[in-house]
Amino acid sequence: MPKDAPLNSDAPEVPMGSHQRVSGMQAKLHRWATADEGRRFDDLFNLVCDPATLLVAFERVAGNKGAKTPGVDGLTVVNVEQEIGPYGFLEDLRHVLKSGEFRPLPVRERKIPKPGGSGKVRKLGIPTVTDRVVQAALKLVLEPIFEADFKPVSYGFRPLRRAHDAIAEIHFYGTHGYRWVLDADIEACFDSIDHTALMDRVRARVKDKRVLRLVKAFLKAGVLTEDNNREDTYTGTPQGGILSPLLANIALSALDEHLTRPWEPGGEMATPYQRRRRRAAGRPNWRIVRYADDFVVLTAGERCDAEALREDIADVLRPLGLRLSEAKTQVVHMSDGFDFLGFHIQWRRKRGTDKWYVYTFIADRPIRQLKDKIRALTSRTSQMNPRDVLIRLNQIMRGWANYFKHAVAKVTLKSLARFVWHRVISWWIVLHRWRWKDVRRRFTDHNGRWKPLSADGIELFSLQVVTVSRYRYRGDTIPDPWALLNHA
């Protein structure tokens, strides 16, 4: 096909389900984007407005846990389903989009405390249901195009990639001599991205002016603050929007491209032999691992090499309107350890040997946060239904353990299991006015062995039974999502 040829969206339709139709569309877009790195796509607007795309987008919005949260218009997904009906709502939305009358409303600001007890807050922007559906439709069309350009060192908010892959890559390169770490933090990344720089990167792949206008309209939609004041948005993409993570990845891919350019074919670090020659000559090698706006740069070299990369990265981020946080960005040696995505990664000697390995532990902050949640649910003055509390505790602990089960965590999980058990028992002793012999009578068998704590048929989940296993580094074997059937 010609470089800027349209996608022929008016071709005869083959009867198929909405998900299958959208999957086929995404697979084609990704294949064409991969085959031609310089191709700019036209006529994408008709794909955004396609009934199948809008239906899949609505299903994703309705299935999101934020579906019950209204935007500035006060409507939730339930209101739309009960008062209008999904198909009537989508037909009206399609008409407004096609006529060019669609205008996104300001996002509703909601401030939530940042984790860690720092007292700082994170500003979330909650779009209306209508805007969420349009953003989801845009994401369905744009994501397979830009995924063809994203580098494998990026893991955040990308299909079939997860935080554990980023940790495994750090573990892999740390084991192979990359011991100096630039632990970087971008200050207010989502609030500071320069709109002009971001739109220039979007235009590099998108030629359709109607799609570009939609993306820009969402960036400029404004914010309705908690004080009911309207504020214009001159920079940034609001956290909470469905399209925001993709736009942030598009902007930050400039950093990925800059730092991975020596690893590309023909580059100075393209082969293991070239990297060994560089080290033998006293020159550094480096590797970036990024998860959304959190990233580390692993360096095989000296501390001064990592410091020089810090200045280089600051120069790359400046045109994007971004800067590194002076307080949170640091250069550390892996033997001192550093925290990333809730894990503590450290190069240390194996007990009883003279061999050193890279270990992944659970960081202190997630443990404190889990204990705070458990304390809040098991206050000794609480009058909540024990069955409801056990259900909520089990949900929290299963989710937490599922994320951290790939760390060196057996001792930590055992300690936390004891902590939870004592918190629940102490609460129940006060709630039911039990004595210790009442506890033993209820929760020990005829041999005196303890039984699991339970209330009305719900057993307390024990973190101690979680199987701890090593997460295997997938490297270049992470599958291409667009090659899978019905991935939409």
UniProtKB/TrEMBL annotation:
Membrane-spanning parts: none
SUPFAM superfamilies reported for this sequence: DNA/RNA polymerases
Residues forming coiled coils: none
All copies of domain Reverse transcriptase, residue ranges: 93-345
Top-level taxon: Bacteria
KW Nucleotidyltransferase (keyword) present: yes
GO molecular function: RNA-directed DNA polymerase activity
Pfam family, one: RVT_1
Family annotation (InterPro entries): DNA/RNA_pol_sf, Group_II_RT_mat, GrpII_Intron_Splice-Mob/Def, Mat_intron_G2, RT_dom
Entry keyword annotation includes Metal-binding: no
Keywords, sorted A to Z: Nucleotidyltransferase, RNA-directed DNA polymerase, Transferase
Protein known as: RNA-directed DNA polymerase
Organism: Streptomyces graminofaciens
